[in-house]
Task: structure prediction
Amino acid sequence: MSGLAGFWEAREIWREALLASVLSGALLGFLGVWVVLRRTVFVSAALTQISTLGLIGALLLEERLGVAAEHLGVQLAVAIAFSVVGALVLGTMHGARRLPTEAGVGMSYVLAGAFVILGANKLIHVAHDFGSMVFGNAVAVSLSDAMVIAGVTLVCATVHTVFQKELVFVSFDRETAEAMGMRARMWDGLLFFTIGLAIPPAARALGALPVFAFLTIPASAALLLVSRLRPVLAIATVLGVVAAAGGYMLSWIWQIPTGATMVALAGLFVLPGGLLRLVRAS
Result:
């Protein structure tokens, strides 16, 4: 109880960080259903790397220009631009005769990762912050960061509410949709635009590792429990919230890394569905 009491007493410190974590968990859990069902898990991994590359590029530019204070808004804007462009390219890319789509995604992932490492090696002042970006350390998040995530969540929720019918049709019955005259690549672009938009602000608050985890684990856990799309979306969203909030709370009480705790807790949610499948199969 003392741990919980201490956590509550420090609410003035973690209030914005917990809000950002919960919003990110909900948003990424929801979007992760589309990522998993469309079998584009490695696209999300590549976008996480590309977003980090944009952030590293902004930091390097600031250092080269001799900017004393970090411009956090500019850094985030650059990361979002990198991620959205990458999402539009990778999400609408179709395999050529000699080069399958997976090859392009794989190359994007490893090249972005390599340039992130090379860029981070050149950074002088933010090595500790770079570690937090990758592994997650959402102990202190500003209100402005939380509001950005809230705004992105609102945009993504609006897009998926207004265009849900088209996104579902193109995603799961593409040939029929194209036969009816729907511009499948345009709707693919809209879907991946929301994914690319969500990753940078969430990665800024939680780190790249939890972002990739929340885009895969809650959706996978939900799909093991139910099969209909709307329940899957609802369950994945709730699991994302619980993993983010619970992981944050446990990491605070136990004094362990925040991002890794969130990921580990999310991983536990796969067990009920896995056990249910085993029971059904026996």
